Amino acid sequence: MRAWTRCRQAVTALALTMPLLIASCGHQAAVTNGYRPDVVPGITRARVIDLLGKPHDEGPFSLPGVQAQVMTYPFGQVLLRDGNVVAVSVNDDPQFRGPFGVTLGMSEDDVRAALAAHPRHRTGHRESYDAIEKSGDTRTKDLYDTTDHVMIEFTATNANDAMAPFNVAQVTYANDAGLALLDAFTKARVDGLYPDVHVDNFTSDDWQGKR
């Protein structure tokens, strides 16, 4: 569900790429797009700004019966409801290391291995669909891990190749409200509420990460 960046143009503008350089003594500077691990669901908008500075873009986002706010930063987006963070999505930060050691660009097989290396009874669901826009098609798989409160989005390396592997495109930390909002957004696109994106081949099934 890469939609917070590529497919979700109705939600927010694309984040500008303005890497920050963090210098370390005697070593080459590390490149980061500003993500901080202490930006998590539950903190306030004011705290986000204290930690990250003002967003590059900010605007409302709504679904039937749901009002939210999206703050856009170079690393991704912060989603808020009633002034509190419900989800943090990271899709552009070379230094990002997520749950279980997951990194952006990691293969689907490597994510399975990372989950296996952190055994726990996990529950959630998986969604798969094709998002078709004027700019092209995106084959997507979303893994909703409701136990660890994270959603991992995979996209195919080649949308026109049925055998193409999937890699991590985005990792979203979310509380229950955030996961529900992400899921509702996908369902809204499936139902045709966003005419600029057509969704085909949507499937959803339960997932249990017993490893």
Summary keywords:
211 residues, alpha+beta, nine-stranded antiparallel β-sheet, two-stranded antiparallel sheet
What does this structure look like?
The protein has helices at 45-52, 108-116, 176-190, and strands at 20-24, 27-32, 57-63, 66-73, 76-81, 84-90, 123-133, 136-145, 150-156, 166-174, 198-208. With 211 residues, it is α+β, with helices and mostly antiparallel strands. A nine-stranded antiparallel β-sheet has the order 3-4-5-6-10-9-8-7-11. The chain has a two-stranded antiparallel sheet with strand order 1-2. Strand 1 (20-24) and strand 2 form a beta hairpin. Mean pLDDT is 84; it is low at 4-31.
**Strand elements, count:** 11
Total helices: the number is 3
Low-confidence stretches: 4-31
- Cα-atom Rg, whole angstroms? 17 Å
The major sheet is characterized as: 9 strands, antiparallel
- Head-to-tail CA distance between termini: 24 Å
Integer tally of domains: 1
The helix content is 10-25%
Q: What structural category do the secondary elements indicate? A: alpha+beta
Taken from the alpha-carbon principal axes, the silhouette is: globular
Q: For the largest beta sheet, what order do the strands appear in spatially?
A: 3-4-5-6-10-9-8-7-11
Calculate the mean pLDDT score and round it.
84
What portion of the residues fall into strands of 2 or more residues? 35-45%
The helix/strand order is EEHEEEEHEEEEHE
